[in-house]
Amino acid sequence: MSHTRLYRDGVLQAEGFPVADVSDHIADPAATVWFDLCAPKPEELTVISEELGLHELAVEDVLSEHQRPKIDTYPTHLFLTVYHARPRQGPLKMTEISIFVTKNALVTVRENDDFDIGEVTERWDQAKERAAHGVAFLLHGLLDRVVDDHFTLAERLDDEVETLEDQLFSEQPTADRHELQRRLFELRKNLVTLRRVIQPMREVVSGVIRCDLRIVRPEMAPYYQDVYDHVLRVSEWTESLRELVGNIRETHLTLQGYRLNDIMKRVTSWAAIIAVPTMITGFYGQNVPYPGSEQPWGFWVSTIAVISTCILLYQVFKRRDWL
């Protein structure tokens, strides 16, 4: 079934109709049309741009990958680029969503089906009392869903940061410390990726509110302001998490240096303990006569000297916390 909807005077009248029928509805000023395209071909976008009068530069941006989140204002429509990030294990995977906004039509273009558009339609159904506001209502539901998922993702990353903080000062084997370092690197990379798509969202949402096309009426302004506040919270939250992860990483490297110094101190202490018996036995192994040479008591003197010096060095090093 096609992802299409037709609202007339704030009432949902049809959905799932072919995209080819859209041109029959947009001529009616009382009608609001939404349709969704997933990874469309260039010729499909050409047909849509001709029917809705979309600017060629906006269509070119849809076909180009890795656009930054932005809002472009054209004489007859707005063009928005946003990114959806769904919480999951491992590196973040972003889904680029291009949005065309006209007076009575909303067009969403997804680069793949990782973003479930059905969750957006459910949100529209839950707030159908605001459907009379037309395109502003539809666009709000879409942006609200994208920002809420950003917020959910920030919460999950915050939980990961707290888990890493708890593991930081715990005694861990070498393999676990390597895993901690890998997770820190991955978490920092995810936060940088999330920050890259969240920071421009402030400009996107505020641009929709202030645009000259007056898409957002005063009745819908508080709802867009709420989305803008969520964007600010997620942006600040992500920035603080990024700094916190940087501090955790520096602390982890500092602790590794302390552990290395402690290991070197212990190894040096044991080497000193071993060196003294080696010196004594080496002295007694000379090919010259010495006190106790070829006598049983000479053997016992050297043995007692080795044992006593080892015990003495061990006690001295232990008292200084070198062992």
What is the top-level CATH class of the largest domain? Alpha Beta
Terminal Cα span: 73 Å
Strand order of the largest sheet: 2-1-3-7-6-5-4
- Estimated helix fraction: 55-70%
The helix/strand order is EEHEHHEEEEHHHHHH
Give the number of helices. Answer: 9
CATH homology superfamily name of the largest domain: CorA soluble domain-like
Quantity of strands, as a count: 7
Please outline the major beta sheet.
7 strands, mixed
* Spans of at least 5 consecutive residues with low confidence: none
Subunit organisation of the chains: single chain
Overall form:
rod-shaped
Task: Describe what you observe in this structure.
The chain has 323 residues and is α+β, with helices and mostly antiparallel strands. The protein has helices spanning 22-25, 42-52, 56-63, 117-126, 135-168, 174-198, 201-210, 221-284, 296-319; strands at 4-8, 11-15, 31-38, 70-73, 78-85, 94-101, 105-110. The protein has 9 helices and 7 strands, in the order E-E-H-E-H-H-E-E-E-E-H-H-H-H-H-H. The chain has a 7-stranded mixed β-sheet. Helix 4 (117-126) crosses helix 5. It is rod-shaped and about 120 Å long.
